Amino acid sequence: MSNFEIVTRENFSDLTYLLEVHHPLMAKAAKPGQFVIVMLSEHGERIPLTIADFDREKGTITLVIQAIGKTTRQMQQECQVGTSLYALVGPMGIPSPISHAKKVICVGGGLGVAPIFPQARGFKEAGAYVIGVVGFRNKDLVFWEDKFRAVCDEFIICTDDGSAGIKGMVTAGILQAIDKHPDIDEVVAIGPPIMMKGCAEATRPFKIKTMVSLNPVMVDGTGMCGGCRVKIGDTVKFACVDGPDFDGHLVDFDDLMTRLKRYTKEERMALDHWEKEKGCRLQKAVDKTIAATDLR
User: Fold this and answer.
1) pTM assigned to the model
2) SS3 of residue 5 by DSSP
């Protein structure tokens, strides 16, 4: 029986949810930018999840998850306060370097908003002037605004429909910050590949150092499977052991996005199979209830 108990559960939207897991040793060791490998059950899938936050005093780590695939949807249903994860390995990956930048923009888009928070906090603790830029589809999906404002000197919210903050993608927020602060030393961005590519292209003309956190297909997290290889300039790196942070101006995002689609068919099959099994179990439970009622 594992001791990786879920002590807090919070739903941000129909798809996005937060799990705070009790793991004192990991909370003590975790640093911004690192990730964990999670297994929900003994025969479950191994999935990598970025550490969105950690609390050394409480002995917990926080994961913010989007229910898209089979395992993340199953976790959304089964992971409640008081339940436990079967396995939780980490922290893995090279911690994000908190440089000596005096002025930095920390950018998070969608699910990338959560893992950019510890980086923003790390830069603030290092004495930097921190500008937070986060992007959501609409105001109903905004989360952690108070947490960001507590560690950011300036905070810019971008929404696709303009229902909160400024209307537009996070690149609009980046350009607004650069226009106001031409002395930006560094930009750090986390989010979907297409978003990070946009951030890198937005900063390229200004020659501002831009770091991104990559999310390729990953199995073992030790560099042995080779699934997480990415093209960085003229070299091939493994995101799990060489990253996940890389120079955004050197990343081959087109190759990354192509590789992310590699197992789309298998992922769809796994989800369909799980949903079918879930439906069968539910029907059996209904039939059993009806039978018991008939006997009475």
Assistant:
1) 0.81
2) strand
**Amino acid residing at 254:** D
Where exactly are the structural domains of the chain?
4-92, 103-260
Distance CA 62, CA 242 (A): 23
In angstroms, the CA 124 to CA 196 distance is 22
Burial class for 258, CB neighbours closer than 10 Å (0-12, 13-18, 19+): exposed
- Give the pLDDT score at 220: 67
DSSP lists the bridge partners of residue 49 as 36
Would you say domain 4-92 falls under CATH 2.40.30.10?
A: yes
In degrees, rounded to 5, the angle at the alpha carbon of residue 223 between the alpha carbons of residues 63 and 212 is 55
> Taking a C-beta distance cutoff of 8 angstroms, is the pair 81, 9 a contact?
yes
CA distances to 133, 241, 275 from 114, in Å = 12, 22, 28
Q: What is the DSSP string of 178-235?
A: HHH-TT--EEEEES-HHHHHHHHHHHGGGT-EEEEE-----SSSSSSS-TTEEEETTE
CATH T-level fold of 103-260 = Rossmann fold (3.40.50)
pLDDT at 23: 92
The span from the CA of 23 to the CA of 29, in Å, is 10
Confidence category of residue 290, pLDDT binned at 50, 70, 90: very low
How many degrees, rounded to 5, is the angle at CA 209 between CA 204 and CA 213?
Answer: 100
Q: Tokens 């199979």 sit at which residue?
A: 273
Q: 133 or 287, which is more confident?
A: 133
Does the bond joining 192 to the residue before it have cis omega, within 30 degrees of 0? no
**Phi/psi class of residue 274: alpha, beta or left (left: φ > 0; alpha: ψ in -120 to 50)?**
alpha
CA 42 remoteness from chain centre? 24
As a whole number of Å, the end-to-end CA separation of the chain is 38
**b/e 138-150 (16+ beta carbons within 10 angstroms → b):** eeebbbbeeebee
